[in-house]
Specification:
Layout: H1 3-12, E1 34-35, E2 39-40, H2 57-167
Antiparallel strand pairs: 1-2
């Protein structure tokens, strides 16, 4: 018998004094809320299954198998989730370690940069003097080339004058 047929049979067998004018059932006196072995319960289920009642062994075996498989499935899901969380935790710990290492490296680089900037500021006047000296040397070289060219011209004129003076 299906649960719908069982429900219809229970409704037909319900005493008329439990039904009021608005067809609302008083749940305090509803026989469907009573367990045959335990008395009144809060459940409104129409199942006639009782744990200690004899029932179909095939159904019992299938139910046990279903609960076992469901338990195994849930256990595997929890195991997989736990493994994923452990992996995530390891990844987070590795990332924390790498970031700490990078922070140390960045801190060291920062200290070295501060030291180099300080040295550069101390050497700046010397570097400015070197640049001025380089400019002066460049000007002196140009003057020396001009002087060398002028002296060659003078020498050429002198030789020309000397040559003209011997000939006359």
């Amino acid at each position: 018998m299906t649960s719908i047929e069982s429900q219809a049979r229970d409704d037909a067998a319900m005493p008329q004094d439990l039904i009021d004018i608005g067809n609302v059932v008083d749940f305090d006196e509803n026989p469907r809320c009573e367990s045959p072995k335990r008395g009144t319960t809060l459940s409104t289920s129409t199942s006639s299954f009782e744990a200690l009642d004899p029932h179909d062994p095939n159904l019992s075996r299938l139910a046990n198998t279903m609960f076992q498989k469901t338990g195994e499935y849930l256990q595997e899901e929890l195991t997989a989730t736990h493994a994923e969380y452990r992996l995530l935790e390891r990844l987070n710990n590795e990332a924390i370690g790498k970031y700490a290492e990078l922070k140390t490296i960045a801190s060291n680089v920062s200290h070295v940069m501060v030291a180099l900037n300080s040295k550069y500021k101390k050497l700046q006047p010397v570097l400015d003097n070197i640049n001025e000296i380089e400019d002066s040397v460049t000007k002196l070289e140009q003057a020396a080339y001009k002087l060398a060219a002028y002296s060659k011209r003078l020498e050429a004129k002198y030789k020309e004058i000397e040559k003209d003076g011997k000939i006359k």
